[in-house]
Amino acid sequence: MKLFLVAVALAVGGTLAFAAALVAAERTTGSPQTAAVAATTHAEHATSSAGHDVALPLESFAGEVADNADALAKAHVPYDATLPPLQDGDLVKVKMVMKDKTVEIAPGVEYNLWAFDTKYGAPGPVVHVRQGQTVEFTLTNGGAIPHSMDFHAARIAPNNAFKDVMPGESFTFRFKADDAGVFMYHCGTKPVLAHIANGMYGAIIVRPEGMPKADREYALVASEWYLSGDGVSEPAALSMDKARAMMPDWTTFNGYANQYVTHPLVSDPGETVRFWVVAAGPTLDTNFHVVGTIFERAWVNGDMTSPPQVGVQTVAVPAGGGAVFDVKIDEAGLYPFVSHSFAHVDLGQVGLLKVGKPKGSMSH
Ligand SMILES: [Cu+2]
Predict the structure, then answer these.
(1) Average pLDDT over residues 78-100
(2) What number of H helices and E strands is found in the chain?
(3) What is the Å distance from ligand 1's center to 345 Cα?
(4) What is the pairing mode between strands 286-290 and 333-339?
(5) Which of 40-49, 52-61, 116-125, 280-289 has the weakest average pLDDT?
(6) Which pLDDT band holds residue 55 (cuts at 50, 70, 90)?
(7) Ligand 1 center to residue 188 CA distance, Å?
């Protein structure tokens, strides 16, 4: 057997690595680990000699911004994280128009979205209703391909309500928002990975009666972008390979990397600030943490029927899930809010809560 393998290696003119792998495999026959290493080495060998692209590394564009990034970040109009007001009455009409558009997702980094006909493009508008109100939702498809909308706050047959809407058409459905919390909504058209990765998501807040008073309330939708190019020289599009490999170039709160570092959310000392957080993904979770404080209350998983957790430092918000957090900060300062999975901070999922009028700037 050994002689035969060596002969094969020599016959195909194999590289040293190939021959070494075969010898290693032969030496410890039966070890699955070694066999896997050998298989990998073999695949790489096949790639380099035959030109198949299956094993080529995926190119990262993380951190690549325009030369005048600081000026562009300052000029960027941040997504308004402030909750829109509640509406009176039993019925709340929500209309969304889908549109293909190019937006900035980081300073000087442009991306071709399939998303919402708003100035931000993505996320979609924050929907804010009272528990028990009925939502009448109308989707108008101004894009080039079919889209749909799946509201996690709804108990409804998906095949009827979340169905594909053809370009140029509109579709309306109603659901009663009986479950309180903060929920994701997203396009559910196949391939869903591509539709969510291209910006088709947002948050719906269903407010229960009797929550503790908050002085400020902000909505944060965490998500990640997978780029086909750097987006600086020309707009990037989705890299499905990178989306499948879960290798984002940027991660954000509300669609644009680091936007609340340049344009902090604000509060005054002693106020209670509430964050309604959704992790839209498409794939990655968000480990929500506010540096310099501890959650006064954390409604983990958006469960508003159980008492909130107290004294918690970091809460995992799963992709497709949400949670609600109160902080009460007495000392003026700059308090970063992050996904404490720190690769996400590096890729842009960080913002600042500016409490009062602090001196100096944030060092990290
Ligand atoms: Cu879609």
Answers:
(1) 98
(2) 9, 18
(3) 28
(4) antiparallel
(5) 40-49
(6) low
(7) 6
Going from the Cα of 138 to the center of ligand 1, the distance in angstroms, rounded, reads 14
pLDDT value of residue 359: 81
Q: Of residues 266 and 360, which shows the higher confidence score?
A: 266
CB 333 within 8 A of CB 355: yes
Lookup result for tokens 């391909």 = 145
Q: Which residue has the higher pLDDT, 57 or 139?
A: 139
Look up residue 131 and give its amino acid: Q
Residues contacting residue 356 through CB under 8 Å, at least 6 positions apart: 267, 268, 269, 332, 333
Q: Ligand 1 centre from 253 Cα, in Å?
A: 20
Residue 94 confidence (pLDDT): 98
pLDDT score of 319: 98
The predicted model gives 150-178 an average pLDDT of 97
> What is the H or E stretch that residue 57 is in?
none
Ligand 1 centroid–CA 158 distance in Å is: 15
Are 201 and 280 in contact by the 8 Å Cβ rule? The answer is yes
User: CA–CA separation, 270 vs 348, rounded Å?
Assistant: 28
Q: Which long-range contacts (CB under 8 A, 24 or more apart) does 33-39 make?
A: none
SS3 label, residue 17: helix
Give the CA diameter of the chain: 83
Question: If you measure from the C-alpha of residue 299 to the centroid of ligand 1, how many angstroms do you get, rounded to a whole number?
Answer: 30
State the distance from the centre of ligand 1 to the C-alpha of 187, rounded, in angstroms: 5
What the block records as the tokens of 241 is 């390979």
360 DSSP 8-state letter: S
Distance of CA 148 from the midpoint of ligand 1 (Å): 6
**pLDDT attached to residue 41:** 35
- The Å distance, Cα 58 to ligand 1 centre, comes to 25
d(CA 46, ligand 1 centre) in Å:
38
In the predicted model, is pLDDT for residue 284 greater than 80? yes
| Among 64, 80, 319, residue whose Cα is nearest residue 197 | 319
Q: State yes or no: pLDDT of 49 exceeds 90.
A: no
- Please give all residues whose CB falls under 5 A of ion ligand 1, grouped by chain where several chains appear: 147, 187, 189, 195, 200
Checking DSSP bridges between strand 272-281 and strand 127-130, what pairing results, if any? unpaired
